[in-house]
Amino acid sequence: PEKYEAKSSIIIERNVINDLIKGVAITPSMTERIKVLRDTILSRSMILRVLRELDLDTMAADDKELEEMIYSFQRRTSVKVRKSNLFIISFQDKDPALARDYVNSLVRTYVNENISAKREEAYGASRFLKEQVAFFKEKLDKAEEAIIKFRQEQGIYVAIDERSIISEIKQYNADIAKIKIRRKELIAKRDSIKRQLKGEEPYSVAVIDNAAGNNSLLIASLESRLNQLLVSYTENYPEVVKLKAEIEALRRQQAELSKSKKAVEESGSPDSAISTINPIYQELKQELNKVESEINALNAKEKMLGSMIRQKEEELRYIPEGKKKLADLEKERDSYRNIYEQLLMRLGQSEVSKQMEVADKATTFRIVEPATLPTIPVSPNRKALILAGVFMGFLGGFGAVFFRESLDSSIKEVQTVKNLGIEVLAVIPKIFDKSEQRVVRKRDLIMYTLAGLYLLVILAAFVHELLGLTYIGTFFAGIKLDLMNIIARLQGDMF
Fold it and tell me: Could you tell me if 77 and 91 are in contact, meaning their C-beta atoms sit under 8 angstroms apart?
């Protein structure tokens, strides 16, 4: 049966605004649009919608026939892309009007569907991005709060530089080493003073009252200095410890002077007024007290430095853990911030894209050439069939002659007999009957005439097809219609 093909050309036009907002809005590429277009047009839902619009679905008795009809229309629908933005939708059917209506309906349905789908997609993307922006904004705020809270709780460990702590520990160890050296010097000095004290008499002639008075003045001066230091420093400050030791030594010395004075007064000796401690002995004793006080101060300072070293080492152990925790929190915060900033940028692009789709400023589908009623069938291809028939006729004729000759085993020449080694006795010529020859010539002439007429008919049909004429098709269509009317009339008479 003859098949007619209806075609419609559609061009995808990119508006000038696409170039102006390149990088600001999200617009799909032309390749993506062509691929989506092909898949969408040939989809089952699109074909079914067109069939329902043309009321063709009512011709199916059940769902199975409907599915077969959809598959048949999908198979006969063709989407071809030319250049980069032009595509052609074609459909073949024996009914030219149906082919035209189907193609136009398919194109119209797709264009309308594409516009609404793009707008819905733009609105959906904008809604989704707004939800994601709010979600990650909340995540980012919580991450910031966690970092602030951690800094408040563990600030001492995350704000200190490890190198500065290590430097302080080294300085403290160096100070302890100096203290040990100084303490050894003072211990040696103390031992020397003790040896000198053994060679001196504790008492000599002097005025007891003056010695006691000097000690009282010195104690008062040292106590005043101690009170000043306690205003700014604690009890463990090295200078405070040293002053306390000196004051204690002077008080012991003054107590000994008091005892000596009392003993002299009780003896009633006339020289009691000048009997007192040996000045050299007293000086050595004071120096000894001073050295011991400095040793005690150094011991206190060494103890304090050791405590500070242990404290710094404890901080040094906690610093890596605190910094690791802070680094993890900051890494999480930075990750959320990066996603949040990207979503904000995408949201802006989505808003621009949405406005473009609403205003129909993105990509325009323009129907260049709608489908028209086809008048010339595209199938069957009569020109190809005629040429193939002529070629096959000649080929069949030559083949038949060759086959018949191969079946003929008779000897037609004398030389053939001689080649077989058979002696030829005589040659009897074939005698033709003139009446029989006339019959044969007449039969051959009729056959050649019919063959020539047949060839002329074939050539005429071929020229007819080359010129694109429709007389033959119309003639046979009329005959077919008359036959169908006769059959319908006969069926009506029978019933």
Answer: yes
**Is the distance from CB of 11 to CB of 366 less than 8 angstroms?**
yes
Task: Indicate the SS3 state at residue 10.
Answer: strand
What are 82-132's pLDDT values in tens digits? Answer: 877 788 899 998 888 999 999 999 998 888 877 766 666 666 777 788 888
Beta bridge partners of 14: 363
Spell out the domain ranges in the chain. Answer: 4-142+360-369, 162-344, 382-494
Question: Is pLDDT above 70 for 267?
Answer: no
State the Cα–Cα distance between residues 404 and 388, nearest whole angstrom: 24
Sign of CA dihedral 91, 94, 96, 100: negative
The mean predicted confidence, pLDDT, of the chain is: 76
What local confidence, expressed as pLDDT, does residue 103 receive? 92
| Amino acid code (one letter) for 29 | S
Task: Examine residue 380 and say whether the peptide bond preceding it is cis (omega within 30 degrees of 0).
Answer: yes
Q: Are 6 and 381 in contact (CB under 8 A)?
A: no
CATH for 4-142+360-369 is 3.30.1890.10
Adjacent-strand bridge partners of 88: 9, 80
Tokens of 458: 């074939």
Q: Per residue in 311-350, pLDDT tens?
A: 877 777 766 666 677 777 888 888 888 888 888 888 777 6
φ, ψ of residue 379 in degrees (nearest 5): -145, 135
Residue 20, number of CB atoms within 10 A of its CB: 9
DSSP class of 25: B
